[in-house]
Amino acid sequence: MSLMEVLGSGTLIVGLISFIFIKILRNFMCRRRNLPPGPTPLPLIGNLLQIKRGHMGDSLIEFAKLYGSVYTLYFGPNPVICLSGYETVKEALVDRGEVFAGRGRIPTIEKITQTYGINLSNGERWKQIRNFTFRKLRDLGFGRKSFEEKVQDEAKNVVEELKKLKGKPLDATKLFMDAFSNILFAIVVGSRYEYKDEKFVELLGIVEETMATLSSTWGQLHTIFPQIMDYIPGPHLKITSVSEKLMSFIRDRVRISQKTLEPASPRHYIDSFLIKMEKVRTYRGDW
């Protein structure tokens, strides 16, 4: 290959890279014109380098002091509007709740949930499940005296656990999380677990591991670059296999409920959901 051909090939590559860089930068600038202010992002990686590793909350507070209660951050190429402060969040999520009812994607666990569920669905599906859940929680006693009694009973169990320590120091975080989880179990499956129960400890461990992975660097990169991170080995890919144990537990509870279901008297949320599913199949109606 002659010198001129080498120079020509090099010039072509440099030109192509420059064109891609300018196009990406132009897209950034066009997007930013109609968005709230925020720190200047870098192409492809956005503002990732400006967020303190392991201290995202502190970084978000510092950005709010600089740019106001509504500002823009770029997580990779994706702009994210950040809200800071009680009044701002209330205006968006309460006063204008319907406008801001959209749900963000979490690619790391979408393979497990298939975008179902009140936390991970979107659009009309989310609205229907949300409305159904609120109605059934009220029917099951949420906000009433019967629900208050469940909380009081669980509080008594917490007190008993504290007494067993006989004054020894304790990080109460896990104990309170166990109590909150048991109240949730009582609503969803109709029963609670002892704090040392093997199955209970395993389930909460799965949830804790999943949340830790989602908030880790691997999980954040997967959320920002799902098309790339799907093919890169790492802990973010283990969530599917780990969460299968949780999904297996839920399937078992659903099968038990199906065998003992009495449509006239639902015992918990799963019963209510199964009854509604049957009505939808029969009448093809809305939730």
UniProtKB/TrEMBL annotation:
Record's bilayer topology term: Peripheral membrane protein
Protein name: Cytochrome P450
Gene3D superfamilies documented for this protein: Cytochrome P450 (1.10.630.10)
Gene Ontology CC, one term: endoplasmic reticulum membrane
InterPro entries cross-referenced by the UniProt entry: Cyt_P450, Cyt_P450_E_grp-I, Cyt_P450_sf, Cytochrome_P450_fam2
Higher taxonomy: Eukaryota, Metazoa, Chordata, Craniata, Vertebrata
Main subcellular localisation: endoplasmic reticulum
Cofactor annotation: heme
Organism domain of life: Eukaryota
GO molecular function, a single term: oxidoreductase activity, acting on paired donors, with incorporation or reduction of molecular oxygen, reduced flavin or flavoprotein as one donor, and incorporation of one atom of oxygen
Family: Belongs to the cytochrome P450 family.
Residues that span the membrane, as ranges: 6-25
A Pfam family matched in the record: p450
PANTHER family: CYTOCHROME P450 2A6, CYTOCHROME P450 508A4-RELATED
Entry keyword set: Endoplasmic reticulum, Heme, Iron, Membrane, Metal-binding, Microsome, Monooxygenase, Oxidoreductase, Transmembrane, Transmembrane helix
